[in-house]
Design goal:
The complex is a heterohexamer, with three copies of chain A (315 residues) and three copies of chain D (100 residues).
Chain A lengths: L5 H14 L8 H23 L4 H29 L4 H12 L3 H13 L8 H9 L1 H11 L7 H9 L2 H30 L1 H51 L4 H12 L5 H9 L5 H35 L1
Chain D lengths: L3 E11 L3 H10 L5 E10 L2 E3 L8 E8 L1 H15 L5 E10 L6
Antiparallel strand pairs in D: 1-4, 1-5, 2-3, 2-4
The chains are: A mainly alpha (315), D alpha+beta (100).
The complex binds adenosine monophosphate (3 copies) and sodium ion (3 copies).
Chain lengths: 315, 315, 315, 100, 100, 100
Amino acid sequence: MPALDPVVLFFLLGLAAGLLRADLRLPPAIYEFLTVVLLLAIGLKGGVELASQSLVVMLPQMVTVVLMGVALPLVAYPVLRFAGRLERADAASIAAHYGSVSVGTYAVAVAYLAYRQVAFEGYIPVFLVLLEMPAIVVGILLARGVDRNTRWRMVAREVLLGKSIVLLFGGLLIGWAAGPEGIKPVEGLFFDLFKGVLALFLLEMGLIAASQVGGLRRHGLFLIVFGIVMPLVAGAFGAGLGWMLGLSVGGTALLATLTASASYIAVPAAMRLSVPEANPTLSLAASLGVTFPFNILVGIPLYHHLAEHIHRLGG
Amino acid sequence: MPALDPVVLFFLLGLAAGLLRADLRLPPAIYEFLTVVLLLAIGLKGGVELASQSLVVMLPQMVTVVLMGVALPLVAYPVLRFAGRLERADAASIAAHYGSVSVGTYAVAVAYLAYRQVAFEGYIPVFLVLLEMPAIVVGILLARGVDRNTRWRMVAREVLLGKSIVLLFGGLLIGWAAGPEGIKPVEGLFFDLFKGVLALFLLEMGLIAASQVGGLRRHGLFLIVFGIVMPLVAGAFGAGLGWMLGLSVGGTALLATLTASASYIAVPAAMRLSVPEANPTLSLAASLGVTFPFNILVGIPLYHHLAEHIHRLGG
Amino acid sequence: MPALDPVVLFFLLGLAAGLLRADLRLPPAIYEFLTVVLLLAIGLKGGVELASQSLVVMLPQMVTVVLMGVALPLVAYPVLRFAGRLERADAASIAAHYGSVSVGTYAVAVAYLAYRQVAFEGYIPVFLVLLEMPAIVVGILLARGVDRNTRWRMVAREVLLGKSIVLLFGGLLIGWAAGPEGIKPVEGLFFDLFKGVLALFLLEMGLIAASQVGGLRRHGLFLIVFGIVMPLVAGAFGAGLGWMLGLSVGGTALLATLTASASYIAVPAAMRLSVPEANPTLSLAASLGVTFPFNILVGIPLYHHLAEHIHRLGG
Amino acid sequence: MPLEHRKLLTIVTEAALEHELAREIERLGAHGYTITDARGKGGRGIRNAGWELSANIRIEVACTVDVAHAIAAALKARFYDDYAMILFLGDIEVLRPEKF
Amino acid sequence: MPLEHRKLLTIVTEAALEHELAREIERLGAHGYTITDARGKGGRGIRNAGWELSANIRIEVACTVDVAHAIAAALKARFYDDYAMILFLGDIEVLRPEKF
Amino acid sequence: MPLEHRKLLTIVTEAALEHELAREIERLGAHGYTITDARGKGGRGIRNAGWELSANIRIEVACTVDVAHAIAAALKARFYDDYAMILFLGDIEVLRPEKF
Ligand SMILES: Nc1ncnc2c1ncn2[C@@H]1O[C@H](COP(=O)(O)O)[C@@H](O)[C@H]1O
Ligand SMILES: Nc1ncnc2c1ncn2[C@@H]1O[C@H](COP(=O)(O)O)[C@@H](O)[C@H]1O
Ligand SMILES: Nc1ncnc2c1ncn2[C@@H]1O[C@H](COP(=O)(O)O)[C@@H](O)[C@H]1O
Ligand code: NA
Ligand code: NA
Ligand code: NA
């Protein structure tokens, strides 16, 4: 079994092509398309499993996960503000990015586990949905304080009706309603091609990540260090939580991956509109230029080992 | 077996997202792509079956189907003109929409039957091709009368060389020439992914249907009633015809679906150029905002039961 | 087994639609997407085989192939310049097109052999990569002579970092690194759908080829003759070479196809920037309007028979 | 640099008219045109380009005053009543007057 | 042909602002707008449209001088400091003044 | 509102030239540019954007008269003979003269 998951190699290809300024780009429409398929596929898969789940088990887990989504940015903020000497808005925005989650990273982790035949709770995508939003709210509060001018309704619309949640949640519902049998007809596209679609998606992500390096060059060492240490800390935290919540090794690894991952779709969009004075090049340089590559190259295997370890110790 | 075909759930997701003004849209390029694949897939499937067909059997059926395509708009027109008090151009245009057919609706019906393992004559796609055109000619005549200024050559080009017919007919020819064996290499894309592609197509159709509701709000109750009653009447008529033509239960259900369906690709485009004074929001509100959803949610199962019924009675 | 490979029928459909000015076009984004998938798929397939190859065997073959890539345009140039009475720049540019290779033609040849279960050396895609570049350099030298103003660095960038080489070469590396096992997860998209993707690609190629006919009408008989004779000569030459290099019948047929094929992606782009005074309608009319159709309709089967023949004689 | 004055005629209308307008524009004496895909809102409501029938195109024609007026007049007469369409003229300077 | 003078306001900015700007433009009295997707470079660096967050839009509004100035002033006040945005005005002639 | 006069230079040409023109435009002193994908017809025939080699781009540069003339002159000299290309200038007003 190769050291790197094959799909990750596509990310490296894209990254290399981007850094070499190769004349290579997937049309935006294709990138959109791949994102839609990935989000739906993840949702559908989760929904099918959901059918066979008791809410009694999940509810406490869901509450805890949401609380974690609130806690993470609160931890990250002071570090960014004082250790990183960043503007308030920038610190708040970056904190929100790391409190939320990255669908791409999650997909790679799923591919990683599937490839090693590690089982996990099929309903984890529910956490994915739950973790999108809270960090954004916290981030805005951190940037603005309790400001009656904040257009919360707009923020809520922006996020709840944003592409990621609509497709993930919609996929969950459809998968849940159709059930394992009903979903079969569409498995050809959403499940059998999942890895291939993910590979192309990562190719594009590599190109995008490369275009963020400029931001790094300008804003120096701190973001790099933060972009690596933060996921490690958060990942460890998430792994511990997963174990406490009684998740399997696979589920623990996935929750660790979620907490360790930083958003680059929902959060940047929301921050751009709600905290415009925050500089997007900073947050994207960190989340796309550093943390995303780190997680899919180094982090995920690490979180997996960590999960195994905790479960061995914790028994 | 779920009440609703899973693929239909994607339509509902799109519809809901559209009505909630969610920030979700498939890029136009992707919508184009999905349409191309659907049209080719339907054509190919039909063509392969065609190989094992005697023209002697089909010819009378084909003639009858074309006559029906001429009759339907002639029936719909007076209703629209007098009961609906619509302008002549609008009545004619809407009549043409309902005289022609909807590929999306057909695809859902095929999925519905396949899902229930109901067999049907594989060459039905031929009817799909045959039914596109006649209603358009009738519609123009209804709007213009026998007007020597009508640019028939332009109309013919517009329709015969339009996307739908070229791809359906082209697919038929290729499938027919390649045969069951020859087509195997491309089945992976055109057959195995059919339902998945249809699901995404319906997601987009839901978004588009939602955007037609405005037209409805403006033009009131009549279009809604017409958009539901017309397909029911036409569907019953088509079912009867299917039985008379000696089609199987599945074939009868499909012919009923075709007659009940209203065009939203070929006809609107043709009418826009040939009967410009007709207001497209009216016809699309009816065909996309009412009839398409009605058919895939309620109509198709109905037409299927009807077909079974007729065959039981007729023996 | 049908006379024509089914995928080729899609080319004919596109060609017919284009010549009839049908209202049919794949969005550019989709064409881009299909190209990316084809290039990656070819690269990946080659890379996987590469794993089990000794460089000792390949190196001499690779060197020979490169030399051939240099020789071909040198042979074509005088013919174009003197028999064809073309401007120096045009002759040089067309010579470069025919010295380089066409990925689409190669893909059709692979489909053709696969369909007939003819085995071939899996690493042939390496030759595809090697043959892109040399003819371009020769072409520029033929047009400019040894001109110190030629921006060689720019040319090198343009080609080595162009889409075709980056994706082919990247695919080779990934396939080689992942190996037969590692590549499995992405086979669904890149291998199982290969023929279907190729079919859609050829549909678009047909439309594009049709749009080149204008160029032909304007520049007459010579290009047609050249566009047919040149691939025949080059193909025979390539077949001989393949046999000398000890390639299998399939490998020989593929090398013949490569030498017979004319570029329409990398070379035109490079020539446009490096030899701008060359009229692109001329070179594209020949390579897309004549040679590409000729090769996939007539050439490939011919080169295959030729390969069998040579191997029978040569034993 | 010797620059000559011309008009830039810009039309925004339904994508369905592309072929027809291209023909008309040439017939009325323009030597070329440029088309970009667009979406927008106007008197006939939102056209968000979600699908073919709700897509707009934006056509630009650089030409002489007379040709610009001829095209404007022709389009007004033929299309204004039935199609989503706007049209406006601007002044431009060009390098090769013979081309426009 | 009776032509009246109006202003063409062109805005190039981040795609993320599309909905917000559309609302603002209508609120300030314009009767319509046209949007095309764009990419480009400016003070805030390259925006190559590789993905959502690096995509630009180009908005055109044909309107009266007053409306144009009102929109320009509003956008300057609200967006210039925080967003990649430029804006310029040109003179145009229109056929149906009441529309703009 | 204090508005200053500038020129808007619009270039329509082959997509293949995108990188090269961007470099040239900046070299000659412009502070930015906006690019949209386009198709069209002109002296060199139809360019319908069906594929890379038949695609056009439309580049806009808001700049001073001098820069506009410099770019126009440079492009004329280097590209007019061999490429499908047109170019025209218009007058615009901008809010932040220092940016252009
Ligand atoms: N005032 C305006 N400024 C810019 N574009 C407009 C304006 N009014 C309409 N448009 C564009 O022209 C198209 C047709 O306009 P209408 O016929 O008014 O619906 C709209 O979809 C817009 O794209
Ligand atoms: N001088 C210019 N000419 C044309 N477009 C420009 C110019 N400057 C900026 N732009 C466009 O406006 C966008 C935002 O500009 P900026 O805020 O300067 O980064 C850029 O991405 C370009 O698309
Ligand atoms: N008169 C014109 N008005 C608007 N666009 C034009 C005009 N002439 C040419 N073009 C555009 O410029 C491109 C190159 O022009 P040409 O070099 O004349 O072929 C064409 O493909 C059109 O997109
Ligand atoms: Na996180
Ligand atoms: Na019908
Ligand atoms: Na060759």
